[in-house]
Write a structure and sequence with these properties.
- By secondary structure, the protein is of the alpha/beta class.
- It has one domain: Rossmann fold.
- 43% of the residues lie in helices and 17% in strands.
- Helix 2 links the parallel strand 2 and strand 3.
- Helix 1 packs across helix 8 and helix 3 packs parallel to helix 4.
- Belongs to the short-chain dehydrogenases/reductases (SDR) family.
- Homotetramer.
């Protein structure tokens, strides 16, 4: 028996990185997974994987999110992963950067939770996991102004949902990684004027001498999605190799 046998799980940003690793980890533990992403081409890498069905969804679009919710009679676990990392201080953050980051990182979770929560309340059972970051209210990070602001908002959103619906059987937690070695990170490093120095800068802050892997974050997500964490709600789960210490 798997740790997630019989559970129906919906997650966003499943085409690569943490989202993809989590979708696979959930399925391996027996869950029926709906893996969504805006990138249909990359998402197809999961097509045919046992226990996973894929669906192209833009989680910033209300109509698409509501249609996704209507496709499911019930959902045991909702995992909100979609996010965007903007590089810059407040002086380098244009209004368009601010609006886009907040739309992808925060509004998408608002839309997803609002669409799926009623189904959980009907069953008096549900589990929501949100992707935050140590770059948030937990730790100030250079050149992560709007990103950190958005992730701090996610921590607040998580605690609010947990407090409001605890007595109706719904849990809500968030995951706060440090630096995770993902295709997104590698692309951002390559986009810097000096990619070699950018990589060295990232590595210099890794107290363990290495970055976290997407699979390691997925292991934590399996725990939060499982009944093993039944008494856990409203909390931020840091997985950063001691970076925030």
């Amino acid at each position: 028996m798997g740790r997630l046998d019989g559970k129906v799980i919906v997650l966003s940003a499943a085409a690569q990185g943490i989202g993809q690793a989590a979708a696979i980890a959930f399925a391996k533990e027996g869950a029926q997974v709906t893996a969504t992403d805006i990138n249909g081409e990359k998402l197809r890498e999961l097509d045919g994987y046992p226990g996973i069905k894929i669906k192209v969804v833009d989680v910033t679009k209300k109509d698409q999110v509501e249609a996704l919710a209507k496709d499911h009679d019930h959902v045991d676990v909702l995992f909100n992963v979609a996010g965007y990392v903007h590089h810059g201080s407040i002086l380098n953050t244009e209004e368009a950067d601010w609006d886009f980051t907040m739309d992808v990182n925060v509004r998408s979770m608002y839309l997803m939770i609002k669409a799926f929560l009623p189904k959980m309340l009907e069953r008096k059972s549900g589990n929501i996991i949100n992707m935050a970051s140590v770059a948030s209210s937990i730790k100030g990070v250079v050149n992560r102004c709007v990103y950190s602001t958005s992730k701090a908002a996610i921590i607040g959103l998580t605690k609010s949902v947990a407090a409001d619906f605890l007595e109706q059987g719904v849990r809500c937690n968030c995951v706060c990684p440090g630096t995770v070695d993902t295709p997104s990170l590698r692309a951002r490093i390559q986009a810097q004027p000096d990619p070699e120095q950018a990589f060295k800068d990232f590595m210099a802050r890794q107290k363990t001498g290495r970055m976290c892997t997407a699979e390691e974050v997925a292991h934590l997500c399996v725990y939060l999605a499982s009944d093993e964490s039944a008494y856990v709600t409203g909390t931020e789960h840091i997985i950063d190799g001691g970076w925030s210490l």
